[in-house]
Amino acid sequence: MAATDTALWGGRFSEQLSSLSARFSNSLSSDLTFVQDDIQGSIAHATMLGECGVISKEEARLIVVALGEIAHEITANGAPPEIECEDVHSLVEMMLVRKVGDVGKKLHTARSRNDQVALDERLYLKRTVSALRIAIEDAIRAIVSKAESSIGILMPGYTHLQHAQPVLLAHHILAYVSMFDRDVERLTDALSRSDVSPLGSAAFSGTSWPIDREAVAQHLGFSGITENSIDSVSDRDHVIEVISDCAIIMMHLSRFAEECVLWSSSEFNFVRFPDTLTTGSSIMPQKRNPDMAELIRGKTGIVYGALMNILTTMKALPLAYNRDMQTDKQPLFDALGTTTDCVKMATELIDGAVFNADAMRAQLAAGFLTATELADYLAAKGVPFRTAHEITGLVVAHCERSGHQLHEVPLKTLQTFSTVIEADVFDALDPVRSIERKRSTGSTSTIEVQTQIALWKARYSQIPS
Ligand code: ARG
Question: In 3D, which of 27, 60, 29, 59 has the Cα closest to residue 43?
């Protein structure tokens, strides 16, 4: 007697898998995510087998019609619980054979589950990575529109989390647009490498059947086919690339989230998020906690973990397919699902953010934000910049002792530090003028920030979401 009528390799075996082995190796619950991709792959494969004369046109037609029905049945009712199978590939084949009998058993000609799973993952990536990319584009549009509506708001810019120089709030938040724009580019790049069909590689060495790999690729909307059949079934670079892109996106989001947490604290009080995005405390009635931002920051760990997971799984695997590779599904789903959710959550935070222009402006008075301006002023009057820096340092030390801000020091006192100082020094010390003087490309003056806004609007406004 054959090992089991549920396994795909019964002939060679005389005993069934132990129940633990069967459960241990079963991947149906995760592969089901790909079921529609798997069926589309089978439809393309069967059509090609018919076109190439490997099976008859009528057999191909029967298989294709039945696969279409199976796709609908699974959408409506899920996988039939009475079918015991190891993975989604066997599930579809068993459902097919149940419908059309022996002709269904011809579907697997010139094909292996190794190239099937590689195909399914690529089709899945093409769908889901596009959805993530659209979510990031939405986040970009949300930031650009916030930047536009808050163009007049000034804030202290930071380095080392210390007051550094005055900037426009719009300039600060547009930095995230530059990050997300690179994320979009990276995903587009990863998608281009996912966009090749591995089908026709069979187990790993190719097939002697007269198949047409290009026709299958075209049918499935791929822009090409993989070059090497061994690589086709042993490669998971596309999965790793997408997860590492997700890890970079989460790193960006975690920086954004950290600023949401800091800025909404009483110490900063730069931003308030609406009740719909804020939680209270069960014991402290006054609390408004930024849990959504904290969770974005926290979920970064899930995605970094997924990256380590897949890299470790693939490390040192000999060619070609190894069963270890089946474990790539969970990190892929975790990374893509978590990242897409977090990007959407961040977009709601951006949309809902209400900035406190007065609190930001009040901070401009502290921390000697225009010290660099004073050094530049002296340098513009001929003092070498290094000396100008030193003189400014002495003025700041004086202010610290006397309890003044730079613009509060009388002209006469300032002149004791350098004879080149004249009444126009107060222009240099004014934060608004300091911002507007920054005219180098990409800098913080209103006009430069408006140029950046126009650039992003042109790049992203036309994309339908
Ligand atoms: N379930 C496997 C995976 O996800 C695909 C099937 C290949 N199995 C095999 N024994 N060659 O990687």
Answer: 60
Q: What is the mean pLDDT of residues 208-221?
A: 98
Q: Ligand 1 centre and the CA of 101: distance in Å?
A: 24
| pLDDT, mean of residues 363-386 | 91
Does residue 157 sit in helix, strand or coil?
strand
Looking from the CA of residue 323, the nearest atom of ligand 1 is 12
Pairing of strands 354-355, 271-272: antiparallel
Nearest CA among 104, 95, 259 for reference residue 179: 259
User: CB-based burial of residue 21 (10 Å sphere; 0-12 exposed, 13-18 middle, 19+ buried)?
Assistant: exposed
Residue 281 known to be catalytic: yes
**Separation of 25 CA from ligand 1 center, angstroms?**
9
Closest CA to 152 of 350, 358, 440: 358
Burial of 23 (0-12, 13-18, 19+ CB in 10 A): exposed
- Ligand 1 atom closest to 117 (CA): 5
- Total-model pTM: 0.93
6-16 tens-digit pLDDT: 667 777 788 99
**Residue 279, pLDDT score:** 87
Rounded distance from Cα 113 to ligand 1 centre (Å): 6
Between helix 329-352 and helix 237-263 the angle, nearest 10°, is 30
Q: What is the pLDDT of residue 21?
A: 96
Question: Distance between the two ends of the chain, CA-based, in angstroms?
Answer: 56
Q: Are 217 and 183 in contact (CB under 8 A)?
A: no
Count other Cβ atoms within 10 Å, centred on residue 205. Answer: 12
Q: What is the pLDDT of residues 438-453, one digit of tens each?
A: 999 999 999 999 999 9
Residues contacting 82, CB < 8 A, separation 6+: none
Element (H, E) at 87: none
